[in-house]
Amino acid sequence: MVVISIIGLLASIILVSLNSARQKGSIGAGLEFAATNYHALGVGALAIYNFDDLSPTSANSTAADTSGNNFNASLFGCSSSPYCVDAQTVNGGGYAFAANSGMFAFKSLLNINVGSQSQMTISVWIKPKDVTYSGTAVSVSSNGNSNGGGQNNANMLVGYLAGGALYIQSSSGSFSAGSCSLNFPGAIQSNIWQNITFSMNGTSGNGIVYVNGKQVGTLSGCTSSGNGGLPFTPALISIGNADAAGDLIFKGSIDDVYIYNSVLSAANVHDLYAMNATKHGLAVR
């Protein structure tokens, strides 16, 4: 009996050790997956903003572009109270824009002429605090000014309309007035992280919209002759606000902004979502 008990105990120890090894292997594989995808999906990016390098209380913060192109984005309009009261980094989980009124955003005036772009993809994680009013998460425009005070149009834009309708645009028209735009009522929820990706091919005039790695809609006929926003030469990247009047302020948190001068495949879009899903409290599907 003693021998049998000892054998049983040893078997249990071996089983626990194997399970522990499997768990460590699974975690290691997950970390390797994320690292591999970060490297692969970082290649070819026009700009990447992770917001991991910001000072939580600084009114003059700069969000580093980690793509290697050095299109760093400076914080504009958050120079004094009350506009900076709750504008802060979120423990490595993005940047929380203050819910107070005021026009401020991260803006990058592209200091290098990257040439005319006929394809573009914007991917961004958003966690709106309030969707009562329209807001802009990310926009890329051919027009900008030296003080970062906004833009008159957005060739590529991801945002939401009052009431929580996801809104995307590839047009030279003003916000919510572009002919090449889509909105999805009820798609954006308050206080929940969501990943939005918008890819546009200006040559074919076709675009695809994804939410959390899954396709939810398409655009067509958006060529330059059909009022489409591409091709264009990017001059300004704006995160958190796209209008000089200050009425399109994003209220909530924004994280992991990726901008590509190409159309990502569906597999790439899913990988981009999967790479940061766990970080934002969502399961990889």
Characterization of this structure:
The chain has 2 domains: 43 residues; 235 residues, Jelly Rolls. The strands form 2 sheets. Strands 1, 4, 5, 7, 12, 13, 14 and 16 form an 8-stranded antiparallel beta sheet that branches. The protein has an 8-stranded antiparallel beta sheet with strand order 2-3-6-15-8-9-10-11, with no helix packed on it. The protein is 19% helix and 30% strand. It is globular, with a radius of gyration of 22 Å. Strand 4 and strand 5 form a beta hairpin. The protein contains 2 helices and 16 strands. With 285 residues, the protein is of the alpha+beta class. The longest helix has 41 residues.
Keywords:
19% helix; alpha+beta; Jelly Rolls; globular; 2 helices; 285 residues; 2 domains; eight-stranded antiparallel sheet
Largest sheet: 8 strands, antiparallel
- Residue share in helices? 10-25%
CATH topology of the largest domain: Jelly Rolls
Mean pLDDT: 75
The SS-based structural class is alpha+beta
The number of helical segments is 2
Q: How many β-strands, per DSSP?
A: 16
Distance between the termini: 49 Å
Secondary-structure arrangement, i.e. CATH architecture of the largest domain: Sandwich
